[in-house]
Design brief:
The structure holds 2 protein chains of 2 kinds. Chain A is built from 16 helices and 23 strands. The longest helix of chain A is centred in the middle third of the chain and has 16 residues, at about 170-185. Chain A folds into 3 domains: about 5-235, Rossmann fold; about 250-330 and about 420-495, Rossmann fold (3-Layer(aba) Sandwich); about 340-415, no CATH class. In chain A, strands 13, 16, 19, 20, 21, 22 and 23 form a 7-stranded mixed beta sheet that branches. By secondary structure, chain A is α/β, with parallel strands linked by helices. In chain A, α3 (about 100-105) crosses α4, α11 packs parallel to α13 and α12 packs across α13. Chain B is mainly alpha-helical. Chain B has one domain: ABC transporter involved in vitamin B12 uptake, BtuC, CATH 1.10.3470. Chain B has 16 helices and 2 strands. Chain B has helices at about 5-10, 25-50, 55-65, 70-95, 105-120, 130-155, 160-180, 215-230, 235-245, 245-250, 255-280, 295-305, 310-330, 335-360, 365-375, 380-384; strands at about 15-20, 360-365. The longest helix of chain B is centred in the last third of the chain and has 28 residues, at about 255-280. The chains are: A alpha/beta, B mainly alpha.
Chain lengths: ~500, ~375
């Protein structure tokens, strides 16, 4: 045991114009410790990690490294100290090899050929097998994450920051990652593990610091806590659970019949002969690691991409493959996309103007003129009904937190009383309270007789709200089974491609 | 979090200045930036005039005050602002929808040709001559822009290149007609058409000025443009397409419809500007009916923040630059390019001011960074 903690933060405060992101945050990470940083979205986790990694500077407070006060002015300085960070979203060049990518990212100049042997060495010694000469575009998301971890390990970090590392991984890949992290910790590397997934934190981490609204709301030994007690520290109250009462499904509302579609993106995934039907009054979930054709499938259903064969997509019995997005909406389709800013909402426009985006058919436009009173009223009632935290209906969409904007978009689409609702990643990056509200809204919609299709990476979520489940892997869809007949082990192996075609 | 951005920044560590995104751009500065750009332009002019050995104050008088000191001069200001305003109003609607019509100059010329053809070859229209000419001008400009719209929506060609190239075709077309078939036989071989008749000229606003009712039409159209952008659903759809194309696709707003609408509006307005010039101060067709109004209108649109009221004010400023440039040629013996220089400087400062609204320049302190790096005697340093 060393006399000083590896990293100690004292009274870190960071104020942005609109919000106090960190308010006198204290944090201690010992050598070889796996330390969880828990908190809802917007709790200040990202800001704190940006400060540790030198991306932003704190307004007040001290950072101590191995007992010495330090100022970290840039990520390069952080790396010099021995701090490495694996980002949630990787920035790798698809057309380059692993070694070339890592060579570009290192602070020192080292030719890729020479680097390759070091990469092989490091990756094998930590149980992270990667081939340095492989092209990145052929790698799965889990493998790409390994590249990022190896990149950090090459610099022999003393502290590794992992930002929501499992959000893109299959359950099996999560196991492998945890093994690696434990091995690193046993070699005296400290790990700061940012997450909002309580099960993982309880399994992996030695200690946890919980943030709420920019302040430390508690520290805990996760193994000694329950999910409920940790959630209370995060949210500051008790949580309701969603409840899905069994009910008989009605007629088929959304039908995909042999849907085959080549991707327009050279690194996208083409869809191969997908069959699926979603009936009135049920929620069907599609699991799978993103990048397996989810965005292509969604675009083909929503009409943002038209399909040559009209019969391969049917909405409420009408062959719709060749219809555009507006025509499909007129048939009763609503859609919540994965990207909220820029697709589900126009960032610079007010919530009232964003209500108009898809709700124009709900009486907000008359004779080609916008009824701004009606648009404001629609936005206002959506804000109230879905408990959206916003200044007013005139606040721009980009002033809302991700979770609140998502509640607004889901609310807007739900209030259009769709016959078919398609939702992608409904609660991605959304805090626990908002996630619950959104899931309940989808269940209510199902109970009112709509057909709901949910595409999500969050398995907990799919199990909580879906009547039936399927898996999408490399553009192929598995058969669909009732949720009760899909144990998580089976789902996990299907997510890795092990299902009969 | 974007790891790539961090790497890019650290790669530039040797450069002491950095651009850093502001947490929240100031709304007030957004409106002030055209004014700041105008002031910076004046300061630059001050330095320029001094460097040329002119008294800056009297040069300023000549450039910016004397041209509009008389009723006639003020009329000229409004007269020259008219085609700029018309073109820029149409362009700004398209620019908001991310449709980059750079060829208003060409649409203006074809509008003038179409309107001029009515004046030259259709007789006995009496009081209907002017409305018919204006209509022909609008349709001519629209037709020219429609070429770009068709190519863009059908073949995905860039409307920036197509509209620009069509400018040169339009200029040659005009040149062909006034040198050839439409040349005035009694015109001593000058490349120009017959003068238009009295009923084919736009009525003047007053006896002593040259500005005509086209200015009032332009003002009225500014109101219409404002109404279109802020109150109609079509205007809303175009704003969405410009601000967030993926959101427009998500909502099912057809991209083609926006492109057609944007180009037809821009072309029609430019065509109207063209016919207003030939049926106004020029009174006939000649090879040089526009000193680049269609191009200057691009600057006007941006200086005016793509907002109709801003465009009205910006077109007056740009008109003053034209008048001042002419006065500077006559009184100060400065070259004609001084007008273009002021236009360019104005746009440059506006773009710079806009950049500084969203970003700020921060001085990184390499000396301190180096000192810290030395202080850190971590064994990891050896490897990196």
């Amino acid at each position: 045991m060393q006399p000083h903690p590896r990293l100690a933060l004292h009274g870190i405060t960071k104020r942005y114009p609109a919000v106090l992101a960190n308010d006198h945050v204290d944090l201690r990470v010992g050598a070889g410790e796996i330390h969880a940083l828990l908190g809802e979205n917007g709790a200040g986790k990202s800001t704190l990690m940006k400060i540790v990694y030198g991306v932003t500077q704190p307004d007040a407070g001290r950072i101590e490294w191995e007992g010495r006060p330090v100022t970290i002015r840039s990520p390069a300085e952080a790396r010099q100290l021995g701090i490495g960070m694996v980002f949630q979203h990787f920035s790798l060049f698809e057309t380059l090899t692993v070694a070339e990518n890592i060579s570009l990212a290192l602070d020192s100049r080292e030719p890729p050929a020479q680097l390759a042997s070091r990469i092989r060495e490091v990756s094998e010694s930590y149980g992270l097998p990667i081939d340095p000469l492989r092209l990145v575009h052929s790698m799965s998301v889990g493998e790409r994450q390994r590249v990022e971890i190896v990149r950090c390990l090459l610099q022999s970090p003393q502290l590794l920051i992992m930002d929501e590392p499992t959000s893109v991984l299959t359950p099996q890949a999560v196991r492998m990652l945890f093994d690696t992290l434990r091995r690193l910790a046993s070699q005296n590397v400290s790990i700061l593990y940012i997450s909002h997934k309580l099960d993982e934190v309880r399994e992996l981490c030695d200690t946890a610091t919980v943030l709420r609204g920019g302040r430390v709301s508690g520290t805990a030994t996760p193994r000694a806590e329950s999910n409920e007690s940790l959630a209370r520290m995060m949210v500051g109250g008790d949580l309701r659970e969603c409840h899905l009462t069994p009910r008989e499904a009605g007629e088929t509302r959304l039908e995909l019949r042999g849907l085959t579609l080549a991707s327009t993106d050279p690194f996208g995934t083409s869809l191969h002969s997908i069959d699926l039907n979603v009936r009135a009054g049920e929620i069907v979930g599609i699991a799978g690691v993103s990048g397996n054709g989810q965005s292509e499938l969604l675009a083909a259903i929503s009409g943002e991409r038209r399909v040559g064969n009209a019969a391969s997509v049917s909405i409420c019995g009408s062959a719709s493959g060749t219809l555009d997005a507006a025509q499909r909406r007129r048939l009763g389709l609503s859609f919540v996309p994965e990207e909220r800013l820029g697709r589900g909402a126009v960032p610079e426009m007010s919530l009232a103007d964003n209500a108009l985006l898809t709700a124009h058919s709900a009486g907000l436009v008359r004779n080609g003129l916008v009824r701004s009173d009606a648009a404001r009223e629609f936005a206002r009632s959506t804000i109230t009904a879905f408990d959206v935290k916003a200044g007013s209906e005139l606040s721009p969409a980009n002033s809302l937190s991700g979770g609140n904007l998502q509640k607004f978009i889901v609310g807007r689409e739900v209030r259009l009383k769709p016959k078919v609702m398609v939702v992608s990643q409904p609660t991605w990056g959304v805090d626990v309270g908002a996630a619950l509200r959104i899931r309940q809204a989808l269940i209510d919609l199902r109970d009112s007789g709509a057909a709901v299709l949910v595409i999500s990476e969050e398995l907990d979520e799919l199990y909580a709200i879906c009547d039936r489940l399927a898996v999408l892997f490399r553009g192929k869809l598995s058969s669909v089974h009732p949720t009760s007949q899909m144990p998580v082990e089976k789902l996990g192996s299907w997510m890795a491609g092990e299902f009969a075609q | 979090m974007d790891g790539g951005g961090i790497r890019a920044v650290s790669a530039m560590n040797n450069w002491p200045w950095r651009l850093e995104r502001r947490a929240e751009p100031s709304i007030a500065m957004k409106f002030a930036s055209p004014l700041i750009a105008a002031v910076a332009m004046l300061v630059t002019g001050f330095i320029l005039f001094s460097a040329l050995g002119l008294s800056p104050l009297s040069a300023f008088r000549t450039f910016f005050i004397e041209p509009v000191a008389s009723t006639y001069g003020f009329g000229e200001l409004l007269l020259k602002s008219t085609p700029l305003m018309l073109c820029a109003l149409g362009l700004s609607i398209g620019f908001r929808a991310n449709v980059w019509n750079i060829g208003a100059e060409g649409q203006l010329i074809v509008g003038a040709l179409a309107g001029g053809a009515i004046a030259l070859f259709v007789d006995g229209l009496g009081g209907f001559a002017i409305p018919l000419m204006l209509l022909a001008g609008i349709l001519g400009g629209m037709a020219w822009a429609a070429i770009a719209a068709f190519l863009r929506t059908r073949f995905h060609t860039s409307e920036i290149l197509v509209t620009l190239m069509l400018v040169y075709i339009a200029q040659l077309l005009l040149s062909y007609f006034v040198h050839g078939p439409w040349r005035d036989p009694a015109g001593f071989n000058f490349p120009q058409s017959q003068s238009f008749d009295e009923n084919e000229l736009l009525p003047l606003l007053a006896e002593t000025v040259r500005v005509n009712i086209a200015f009032l039409i332009a003002l009225a159209l500014a109101g219409v443009a404002w109404f279109f952008v802020s109150r109609t659903f079509a205007g809303y759809r175009m704003r969405v397409a410009g601000l967030a194309p993926a959101a427009a696709a998500y909502a099912g707003y057809g991209e083609k419809r926006n492109i057609w609408l944007a180009l037809l509006i821009g072309g029609g307005m430019a065509g109207l500007a063209g016919v207003s010039e030939v049926a106004g101060p020029i009174g006939l067709l000649s090879p040089d009916i526009s000193p680049g109004y269609g191009f200057a209108a691009i600057i006007v649109a941006f200086v005016g923040r793509l907002h109709p009221i801003g465009v009205v004010l910006a077109s007056l400023l740009m008109s003053l630059l034209y008048l001042g440039g002419e006065a500077a040629q006559i009184d100060l013996q400065l070259p004609a390019s001084v007008t273009g220089l002021f236009q360019g400087v104005l746009l440059f400062y506006l773009l710079a001011a806009d950049l500084l609204i969203t970003y700020r320049i921060r001085r990184a302190r390499p000396d301190v960074v180096a000192a810290e790096a030395i202080k850190v005697d971590n064994p990891v340093n050896v490897q990196t």
